[in-house]
Design goal:
CATH superfamily of one domain: Gcn5-related N-acetyltransferase (GNAT)
CATH topology of one domain: Aminopeptidase
Number of strands: 7
Strand content: 25-35%
Order of helices and strands: EHHHEEEHEHEE
Strand order of the largest sheet: 1-2-3-4-5-7-6
Largest sheet: 7 strands, mixed
Radius of gyration: 16 Å
GO molecular function: acyltransferase activity, transferring groups other than amino-acyl groups
Keywords: Membrane, Transferase, Transmembrane, Transmembrane helix
CATH architecture of one domain: 3-Layer(aba) Sandwich
Distance between the termini: 34 Å
Shape: globular
Oligomer: single chain
Bound molecules: coenzyme A
Structural class: alpha+beta
Number of helices: 5
Pfam families: Acetyltransf_10 (PF13673)
Organism: Rhodoblastus acidophilus (Rhodopseudomonas acidophila)
Protein name: Acetyltransferase, GNAT family
């Protein structure tokens, strides 16, 4: 069970911390499934903090904290795309991504999405499969000069019902 994980909306002032977390997460947790060059290209996506801040602001971004420290974040694009999900390595395997994903699924359902879609990294595929996401297709995506594989996965969401009278 998750230990005192709190969730809150991301603020513009969080952008530098979230960019640093993104890079650390990729550089630490991504190494098992991708080459050094691939990890470097992936991590570089958060190199330009202003650009990264724009990406966060263009989505519904939620921050998870544990003991007051930022432990991870997730972003929902539109109604049905889980755009980012990154956990600080120090807080890995403590239920942070699960708490963030629970919230993303509820927010997507509240936006009337019938399913939630994610392009899951190879390291995250097991996490999503355990939550009921089914693989749809394999992608090879250019990130800088590198090609990284990921898998589009989807999960059907329960219909959101309004309050009854
Ligand atoms: C994938 C990631 C988000 C998981 O975050 P997390 O907070 O450690 O995940 P949780 O603690 O909520 O994991 C819940 C369960 O999912 C499964 N799981 C989590 N990480 C897993 C992994 N790397 N491999 C297989 N199963 C995994 C486990 O069953 C785990 O339960 P357990 O710890 O009791 O065995 C994190 O490793 C990460 O940030 N990775 C790097 C960035 C990335 O790939 N993001 C996804 C982009 S789509």
């Amino acid at each position: 069970m998750a230990e005192n994980i709190a969730l809150r909306p991301a603020l513009p002032a969080d952008a530098p911390a979230l960019a640093a977390l993104f890079r650390l997460s990729v550089e630490t947790l991504g190494v098992e499934d991708y080459s050094e060059a691939q990890v470097e290209a992936w991590s570089a996506l958060a190199e330009d903090e202003a650009e990264f801040a724009k990406k966060l602001a263009g989505a519904l971004t939620i921050v998870a904290t544990l003991g007051g420290a930022i432990a991870g974040f997730a972003a929902l694009k539109g109604a049905d795309a889980l755009y980012m999900l990154y956990v600080h390595p120090h807080f890995a395997r403590r239920g942070v991504a699960s708490a963030l994903c629970d919230a993303m699924e509820k927010l997507a359902a509240a936006r009337q999405a019938k399913k939630l879609t994610v392009d899951a990294s190879d390291g995250a595929e097991g996490f999503f499969a355990r939550r009921g996401y089914a693989p749809q297709k394999r992608n090879m995506t250019f990130v800088g000069d590198e090609v990284l594989g990921n898998t589009t996965m989807t999960k059907d969401l329960p219909a959101m019902t309004g309050p009854t009278q």
